Amino acid sequence: MKYRLSLSLFLFLVIAAFPAPASAGQWYLGGTLERVSFGSDLSDIDFNADLGLVGGYRYSPYLALDFALSGGEHFDSLVGSNVNYSRLDMGVKFIFNDVLPLQPFVVVGLSSHYLDYGPYILDIDGSGLFAGVGLEGFLNSANSVGLSVKTHWWTGEDLLYSYDARTTSVGIFFTHYFTAP
């Protein structure tokens, strides 16, 4: 509950601070393939591929609200079982160039993480912050491909323990803009 309230306040402040110009509304949606690695207290979980959905709303040529939902199956060598990992990112994307077909960006925001160990082991649920960089290249006025690298710093807990965790993802994505950029 505390995470949802913080996320709502964060998004409200971003929208209030950066109002959309009348001609800048651009929704986008796409998919991503990521390689995710775990660190800190969860370093025993393997490095594996996740699939995801990306999207957002571009308020201006230089600013967008961005979200990503991804997940996949990993193996935890400490407990000897598979674990399903899912993550939701919501943040602000700062685009540095809106003229050339290649557009570098920085994205920062809040994230929610969930590790499902199945019916016999306690699940880990957590939230935190993330930051990332990327490069988006436009194929035409409505479609783009890109590369992004994000690091997440988060705290998770089950019924018994708390965990300080770090996940790093390297991903490729395809995005469709519903109005021309």
Taking the sheet with the most strands, its summary is: 8 strands, antiparallel, barrel
Mean pLDDT: 82
Helix content range: under 10%
Gross morphology is elongated
Question: What strand order characterises the main sheet?
Answer: 1-2-3-4-5-6-7-8
- By DSSP (H or I, 4+ residues per run), the number of helices equals 1
N/C terminus separation: 36 Å
Structural class assignment: mainly beta
Quick synopsis:
This protein has 181 residues and is mainly beta.
What does this structure look like?
An 8-stranded antiparallel barrel has the order 1-2-3-4-5-6-7-8. About 5% of the residues have low confidence. The longest helix has 16 residues. The protein is built from 1 helix and 8 strands. The chain is mainly β and about 180 residues long. A hairpin with a 4-residue loop joins strand 6 and strand 7. The protein starts with a helix and ends with a strand. The chain is about 10% helix and about 65% strand. The radius of gyration is 17 Å and the shape is elongated.
Q: Can you tag this structure with a few keywords?
A:
181 residues, mainly beta, 1 helix, elongated
List the topology elements.
Blueprint: H1 2-17, E1 26-40, E2 48-60, E3 63-76, E4 81-95, E5 102-116, E6 124-138, E7 143-157, E8 162-177
Antiparallel strand pairs: 1-2, 1-8, 2-3, 3-4, 4-5, 5-6, 6-7, 7-8
